[in-house]
Specification:
about 240 residues, mainly alpha, 9 helices, globular
Length: about 240
């Protein structure tokens, strides 16, 4: 994974990058931070699955951990691509400094928790939490589930905001071919991460609201990023 050689300044980083970079006395390369994230979460999933005999739930947990970890990689790759070229300050500020992705992530997470623990039980049938963890859900398992789901929601919220700002950028500004090529690659990274979230579909097939939410999200990101790439081509200077 290539990295921007210029030192990152807070205010032009994702919140995720700012937290990693702010750890006192610790300087981790990007690949190490992602590897630790993947290792810690996956180890937690496997240990708790073995202790409580929840191996079926471990499959869903592993899928969520992988989506979150790849989301971290994509955030770092997109950030590196955008920072290595000369882009309008408004776009850079919106993408990194506004923290709107955190607001979107919180809204998505609250909606998900409300669905899992309020809406789903009110339907009278089997709940997703009950299917995964049984009628008496272990506290540690639920804690880890909520932690991993926050990680997934944060990456999804970041993907939303990156997609929106990309479309706004492509519609508003013109770029030389070299800059446009880098931005197109960043847009395709955003699109790829959106499509990756389809791996969550098999685990929510029988839960129509969650299934519709995941599919609608993937379709929306695909449409927005396709339009961004199209406009970027139209706006490229000769």
């Amino acid at each position: 994974m290539s990295q921007d050689r210029r030192p990152l300044r807070y205010g032009e980083t994702w919140v995720y990058e700012s937290i990693v970079g702010a750890l006192p006395g610790i300087s981790l390369p990007a690949w190490a931070a992602v590897a630790i994230q993947l290792l810690v979460f996956e180890l937690g999933v496997l240990v708790l699955a073995a202790y409580y005999d929840l191996w079926a739930a471990a499959v869903a947990g592993t899928a969520a951990v992988v989506v979150a970890a790849i989301g971290s990689v994509e955030m770092l790759r997109i950030g590196t691509l955008v920072r290595r070229i000369d882009v309008p300050g408004d776009y850079r500020d919106l993408l990194f400094s506004s923290n709107v992705e955190v607001v979107l992530s919180v809204l998505a997470y609250i909606a998900l928790v409300t669905h899992l623990f309020v809406f789903d039980p009110q339907q009278g049938g089997e709940t997703l939490v009950g299917r995964l963890f049984g009628p008496d859900q272990p506290i540690l398992v639920v804690y880890l589930m909520l932690l991993v789901l926050w990680d997934v929601c944060y990456r999804i919220g970041t993907g939303w905001w990156a997609a929106i700002t990309s479309l706004w950028r492509s519609a508003r500004y013109r770029f030389d071919p070299e800059t446009a090529a880098v931005l197109r690659r960043a847009d395709l990274e955003i699109l790829g991460f959106g499509l990756l979230q389809l791996v969550l579909v098999p685990f929510v097939l029988e839960f129509r609201v969650l299934l519709a939410a995941v599919l609608a999200h993937v379709v929306a990101v695909t449409v927005v990023m396709s339009l961004s790439v199209f406009l970027l081509g139209r706006q490229t200077t000769a």
